[in-house]
Amino acid sequence: MIPDDPITCIPDEFPPERRDAELWIEDGTLVLAVEDTAFRVYKGLLKIHSPVFKDMLALPTSLLPAGVTVGTTVVDGEKCTVVRLPDSAREWRYVLRVLVVGDGRTLKCVLNLSRSGSDLFLMVLLAYIRLGHKYKIEDVYRRSLKALKGVLKPRWSFSARPRLLPSYALCVVNIARLTGEPSLLPYAMLLCSRGVSPAFTGYIVHSDGKKEDLNEEDDTRCIQATRKLVLLTLSAITEVVLPPMTCKEGRKCQKMMDTLARTLLPTVMNPMSPGPMDPMLWSVVRSEEFRLAQKMLCASCWDQLSFFRVRKQREEVWNMLPSLFDISSDEEYKANH
Questions:
Q1: Which of its termini does the chain have fewer beta carbons within 10 Å around, N or C?
Q2: Count of Cβ atoms closer than 10 Å to residue 194 Cβ
């Protein structure tokens, strides 16, 4: 039903250069005008997937959400409903690909590729979550959020490393605040900390040229956590390299551990030449010193170092992240991870 007080649009409002090349269906009954792009789709399709859209198409103009207008226009000689949205055309393109295909193949493909750590598909995943949450496109939102939690799930293996670039991590932080999902925050905020990621700029420029900043409150939290990250890194390395080794090889393995301690600890303790903080030991275990230790230690000592000690420290640091960044809902965080 078209509202009682529609906005009448001029017939040539959507010339070919504004029409999306992929998502302009010639017999579509609704035009979504987002930024400078127009998508023509089926009205009934959006109403089925989104109760928010169903309501918006029935509401008078005075009750529409901020930034949204609904009216009518003439497209290629046919009367058509037009909805203007204050969102990103790039993100709507991602979502409409799923809704128009309709069989879930596009969504399934993105979910699988995002789990592999692909940055491009992670951004598509975040678009699904943002618009799925805003417009209550429940299936897209629910499955995408589950996939994102899978990307952020801790991995304790010796070779584990970050699965997000810091610039993408800030998008995760913003999404977590938008959706009220605190379990997404600690890992992403760790990567947004300049002590851990010195090259982090606090913003990202998306493929459409739009700039997204880390919200000010969480940026402050990340900065304030710097001193604690130094102490956590020092504690983690100390607990890994200082306890004595006892094995059949005796002094040989202990000598190697002493070398590790003499090499690694000064880099953290020296305030004049600080490197990136590494409380999760991502970089430490890939260092030349650890590669040498793998060659020099006996099998038993190497297992103790690489599996038991490193894993234990990663688990302890992981469980400290909520308090480190002053994040509430600590119990929910642990339950989700």
A1: N
A2: 19
Please state the φ and ψ torsions of residue 236, each to the nearest 5 degrees: -65, -45
Least Cα distance to 147 among 188, 114, 109 occurs for 114
The H or E element containing residue 310 is: helix 310-324
CA–CA distance, 67 with 244 (Å, rounded to integer):
64
Of 25, 168, 171, whose CA–CA distance to 99 is shortest? Answer: 25
Give the up-direction half-sphere exposure of residue 21: CA atoms within 13 A in the CB hemisphere.
1
Encode pLDDT of 142-164 as tens digits: 999 998 888 888 877 777 888 78
Predicted TM-score (pTM) of the model is 0.84
Residue 211 pairs with which residues in a beta bridge?
A: 205
Q: Among 126-135, 241-250, 326-335, which is the least confidently predicted range?
A: 326-335
What are the domain boundaries of the chain? 7-86, 92-224, 228-314
Q: How far apart are CA 298 and CA 132, in angstroms?
A: 53
